[in-house]
Every structure is written in C-alpha cells, then in structure tokens.
Amino acid sequence: MFTGAVAPDFSNQVRDFDPGIRKSGLFWTIALSSDAVSVNLDKGKAHYHADNVELEDYFNIPNALSDGQITGPPVAATVSFDVHWKNPTDHYNIKESTQGFRGSFWVTDATITWSGQNDNGDAFQSTAVTAVNFAAIGHERNGKFA
User: Fold this and answer.
1) ∠90-93-101 over CA atoms, to 5°?
2) Which of 44, 67, 70, 132 would give a disulfide with 106, using CB separation of 3.0 to 4.6 Å?
3) Helix (H, G, I), strand (E, B) or coil at 123
4) So what's the pLDDT on residue 60?
5) DSSP state of 129
C-alpha cells in the first residue's frame, strides 16, 4: 500500500503484506485451497476469494526483500480479498515453440475488493470495488509441458 502514486524508491509505501521468502528462494507465493478459485474458461469467467490469509507486514518492499533487516522485523498480519474476472472481450491463442510456451487466454474485466490488518492494530479496506485497467484469464503450458 502506498500513499499516492508509487515512488520509485518505495519511500511512500506504508504496508507490504506478504508471506516472506522461503529458504528455497521462493517469495511472495503461498498455496491456497482449491476451493478459493473457480474458473469457467469457456465463458471467460473466474472468481478468486480468500478470508484471513495469514501473512506478515514488512511495511515496504526493500524491508521484505531483506527479511526485515532495513526497517525492522515484520509483524503478523491477515488479508482477505475477492477478485472477479468477467465480461470477456477477446480470446486468443499463443504458441511459441522456441520457448516451449502455449496458452489460451480471455481478455476480461476484473474487479477487486481487499482488506488487511496487522497485529499492531493497523487495518485497511478498499473503499469500493476496484476496477482494473487490464485483466486476462487463461490456461498456459510452458517448458517441458508444452
């Protein structure tokens, strides 16, 4: 979360809710249960929902990438969100044999509602349903799976 437009040096970032960095190097990624997602690619629709996902608030991206070494350790946090993809406008297929990639995608509208809070008592919630500038859903295969 930022106060105003994103500053290149993250100086106006006030929250960075994320699951941290695993020893394997995987970061900003966690598994959610399969019932968090529903997809109907034939209709260009999808829904992604989660309540009270346990994360940490690192306060800003540089602090998250340094595992809390810049501005201090993270605090426990939770987030909830609801994302809808709908109203498909374009459908396209991509096949790139050299890179071993192929996919089928729908360009759609998308809306998001979001809330989060940390153990310091800071709480945030989107004030309205947020529409995004670009959204797409699809199915892709890459590497040896293509």
Assistant:
1) 140
2) 44
3) strand
4) 94
5) P
pLDDT at residue 145 in the model: 63
Q: Which two tokens stand for residue 121?
A: 């008592």
Domain of 125 in residue numbering reads as: 17-23+41-145
What whole-number distance in Å separates Cα of residue 94 and Cα of residue 43?
A: 19
What is the torsional sign of CA 39, 1, 54, 129? negative
Q: Phi-psi region for residue 59, left (φ > 0), alpha (ψ -120 to 50) or beta?
A: left
Closest CA to 16 of 80, 65, 83: 65
Q: Which residues pair with 103 in a beta bridge?
A: 94, 140
Low-confidence residues of the chain, pLDDT below 70?
Answer: 144-146
Q: Is residue 138 part of a domain?
A: yes
How far, in Å, CA of 83 to CA of 111, rounded? 6
Put simply, whether the predicted model's pTM sits higher than 0.70 gets the answer yes
